[in-house]
Structure formats: structure tokens, C-alpha cells
Design brief:
The chain has one helix at residues 28-32; strands spanning 2-7, 10-13, 18-26, 34-42, 49-54, 60-62, 70-75, 80-85, 94-102, 107-109, 113-118. By secondary structure, the chain is mainly β.
């Protein structure tokens, strides 16, 4: 079993920046099995949507809406994934969830962290 704990959310003005972190914990075997890690978000009244993912080898994938503004990175030694969010817009306001998928497709979610961008 893997636990994911997010941090770094908050309130920021439009054009500002925030950095989210997600630390994974669990057994050594579970942690080394984590392949894809990423971030999703859910705004009020909307479905949860992908923001960005990164695999163990460092290959990244971004939603079109955040390309060029957000950067996902990963520290495999610390079992931590980061999301650097720059040039934030009010439409980025949402609860951001960390996600991890193991090599045998076990799916883990964090509890979520609120990001609010004021105009």
C-alpha cells in the first residue's frame, strides 16, 4: 500500500506561482513499483481532469491548458513529485490531487490540496 501526501497549495494572485509537492510513503517494494506519478485537478461542478504526468524515466505529459506554464518533475530517491505552476490564471483554481500508478496498475490518490487564484 502507498500513501500520498500533498502540500504547497494556497491562495495566489493571477500571474503568480505556486509549487506543489507530493510525497509517497509505504513499503520499499511498493515505492519502487511506482511508475507514473502525476497531478489531476477538480474545479467545483466539473470532472476531475489530468494536469500533468511523469514516468519513472522522466517522460512527461501535460494538458494543453497548462503547457508552457506548469512543469512537473520527480525525485525518485525521495519518492516525491512536484508541480511548479507559473503564470497562474483564475481558471486554474481547483483542488489538486496527486496520483501514482504502479507497474501492476494499482492506482493511488492523495487527499488533495486547494489552489485558489484570484483575479
Amino acid at each position: 500500500q502507498v500513501q500520498l501526501v500533498e502540500s504547497g497549495g494556497g491562495l495566489v494572485q493571477a500571474g503568480g506561482s505556486l509549487r506543489l509537492s507530493c510525497a509517497a510513503s509505504g513499503s520499499v517494494f511498493s515505492l519502487i513499483s511506482l511508475n507514473v506519478m502525476g497531478w489531476y485537478r477538480q474545479a467545483p461542478g466539473k470532472q476531475r481532469e489530468l494536469v500533468a504526468t511523469i514516468n519513472r524515466g522522466g517522460t512527461t505529459n501535460y494538458a494543453d491548458s497548462v503547457k508552457g506554464r506548469f512543469t512537473i518533475s520527480r525525485d525518485n530517491a525521495k519518492n516525491t513529485v512536484y508541480l511548479q505552476m507559473d503564470s497562474l490564471k483564475p481558471e486554474d483554481t481547483a483542488v489538486y490531487y496527486c496520483n501514482a500508478v504502479s507497474t501492476w496498475l494499482a492506482n493511488y490518490w492523495g487527499q488533495g490540496t486547494q489552489v485558489t487564484v484570484s483575479s
